[in-house]
Specification:
The chain is an alpha/beta fold. Helices cover about 60% and strands about 10% of the residues. The relative contact order is 0.20. The structure holds BIS(adenosine)-5'-pentaphosphate and magnesium ion. Magnesium ion binds next to helix 1.
Length: about 190
Amino acid sequence: MLNIALFGPPGCGKGTQSKILIEKFGLTYISTGDLLRKEIAAQSNLGLAAKKIIDKGGLVDDDLIVKLIEKHVENNHEHGILFDGFPRTHVQCYILDGILADMGHSLTAMLSLEAPEDILMTRMLERAKISGRSDDNETVIKMRFKEYQEKTLPVVEFYQRQKKVHIINGVGTIEEISQRIDNVINSLLIARN
Ligand code: AP5
Ligand code: MG
């Protein structure tokens, strides 16, 4: 099993690169951001509670994320799971490790996509023209950057202690970045065999 957490600030390309990876490696895709937007569209209690936070650029409470994961994670992952935007807090690291341990597995690697905020802002404001995402505006994006710096970045240290973090330059074309990710995954696969 190849269990990957794709990590990085808002707009770094997690969703974009995830699409390529799940195709290539046949992985099950779990994006907490996408799942939350589904809950919002369905107007569930969970979705309504999450929307208030997402619209301000904050992080949704860990207990809601636990409920979200319990609701959507099934137990049949032949080739592994790709987590996009999860874990995002220390508590979520323990949740993730617990979920995988229950399946008899562990996280293979955390791939951390890095890019400067001015580039990320430009990408997301461009996306705002078509995304319909209520959090794609300058004020909320700045808040998302702040939350990322304060609460999410420490997650890297958690997995650095397990020697599982691979930093990837997230500046360049989608294809260039995809190639960098491929190089890391191929080296992981070679090391395992
Ligand atoms: P989430 O949906 O995860 O949003 P995010 O982390 O802010 O990241 P984005 O989805 O905005 O960007 P991305 O990295 O996926 O980049 P993308 O590929 O789209 O979370 C939203 C909110 O939900 C959070 O703020 C929080 O409130 C809540 N939430 C979610 N998970 C949570 C959790 N676990 N705990 C607590 N709260 C949680 O690319 C961005 C744009 O750039 C696209 O238009 C794309 O086409 C373009 N692009 C991509 N790559 C390139 C490139 N190389 N060059 C040029 N353009 C590019
Ligand atoms: Mg995304």
